[in-house]
Amino acid sequence: MYFFSPLFGLLLCLSLWVIFPYWGILSFFNFNSILLFCIISLIVYFLLGCGWTSFSKYSSIGSYRSAAQGISYEVRIILILLGFFWLINSFNLYNFFYWQQILPFFLLSFPISVIWLIICLAESNRSPFDFSEGESELVSGFNTEYRSGGFSLIFITEYGSILFLCLFTCVFLGGAGYFYFFRGFLLVFFYIWVRGSFPRLRYDKLILVAWKSILPFVLGFIIFIFALGIFF
């Protein structure tokens, strides 16, 4: 399990790219968003496996905290996506291209777009929410006991997930356009810019932001989207 856990994380990361809505359709099926939800939820087991099988209390505590952080923000990602799936009346990710040819969802819901970027930063364990690898009292988090190949696989998984989230954000909120890859790399630059600009938050504040600030806002947004879908 110690050697299999990083491979499992890389497998999940590569599986995300199979359902990515390219212009040239690779795997078209109507419920690919359900598969997206399943893969995102399994990433928590990759974190727990890496920490638990290291037989180190520092790695175990780091994996528990990383899993709690991931679950807290996965709930918000799924709720926001469900709101937009209700709006387009489909669970197919490819329909985001067609519904945003006139008006991108970024302009329709600018506040929730900002919340989405914050959630993506926390979900991908980037600054100022990089508690998976940046805890001073945990040495290096869940990957403390990994080295060489295992260490490389863990960070390939992390940066592959960052690229996926950036490109998926451009499709999800920006819609159609041949330059969404360029917009995706601008978001990657945004990740780097945030890392060099803001200090790391405390872990308890991160969880409080998730449950006391972001969750009520997202629930209000879902009520608004449901009303919009019913009356229009």
Which keywords apply here?
232 residues; mainly alpha
Nearest-integer average pLDDT: 83
C-alpha geometry: globular
Number of strands: 0
Q: What's the gyration radius in Å?
A: 18 Å
How many separate helices? 9
DSSP strand content = under 5%
Flag low-confidence runs: none
What proportion of the residues is helical, as a percent range? over 70%
Decide which structural class fits the backbone.
mainly alpha
Q: Summarize the biggest pleated sheet.
A: none
Sequence of secondary-structure elements:
HHHHHHHHH
State the end-to-end CA separation: 51 Å
Tally of domains? 1
Overview in brief:
With 232 residues, the chain is mainly alpha-helical. It has helices spanning 4-18, 32-52, 57-88, 95-99, 105-108, 110-123, 148-174, 180-195, 203-231.
Architecture overview:
The structure is a single chain. This protein is mainly α. The chain contains nine helices and no strands. The longest helix is centred in the N-terminal third of the chain and has 32 residues, at 57-88. The mean pLDDT is 83.
